[in-house]
Design goal:
The structure is a single chain. The longest helix is centred in the N-terminal third of the chain and has 18 residues, at about 1-20. By secondary structure, this protein is mainly α. The protein has five helices and no strands. It has a domain at about 60-110. The protein has helices at about 1-20, 35-50, 60-75, 80-85, 95-110. Helices cover about 55% and strands about 0% of the residues. Helix 2 crosses helix 5.
Length: about 120
């Protein structure tokens, strides 16, 4: 009888130790940048989460914004593609806001956007 009780206690202790090992963890989130990049990140986050009210901009290149926002939308994970529609923001973002949105998406979803080619004169 004593052996059975010791066996049960030992099994109970081992079972609890295995379950509490902490070997499985959730996915991490990207490191939030510091300094000026932090402001840019949070502006992009607010735009992405639609926390800012945006109005039509008159001095923007719609074709360029459409192209960049379509590319960003296609780069998102499938769960985010269903949640947000970035091309709807076309014509409502200033260049600074669009760059902040691109920066946020790069950091948050670990996406490498292509480098912009500068025109050679």
């Amino acid at each position: 009888m004593k052996y059975i009780i010791n066996f049960l206690i030992g099994t109970l202790i081992l079972t609890n130790a295995i379950n509490a090992s902490g070997g499985i963890s959730g996915g991490g989130i990207a490191n939030i940048p510091q300094g000026q990049d932090r402001e840019k990140y949070h502006l992009g986050k607010a735009i992405f989460n639609q926390e800012l009210s945006l109005e039509k901009q008159t001095s923007v290149n719609l074709n360029d914004q459409d192209e960049r926002l379509e590319y960003l939308q296609g780069s998102l994970p499938n769960t985010e593609k269903r949640r947000v529609n970035l091309p709807d923001l076309s014509g409502k973002l200033t260049e600074e806001q669009l760059k902040a949105l691109e920066y946020f998406v790069q950091i948050r979803f670990n996406i490498k956007l292509p480098e912009k080619k500068k025109d050679k004169e």
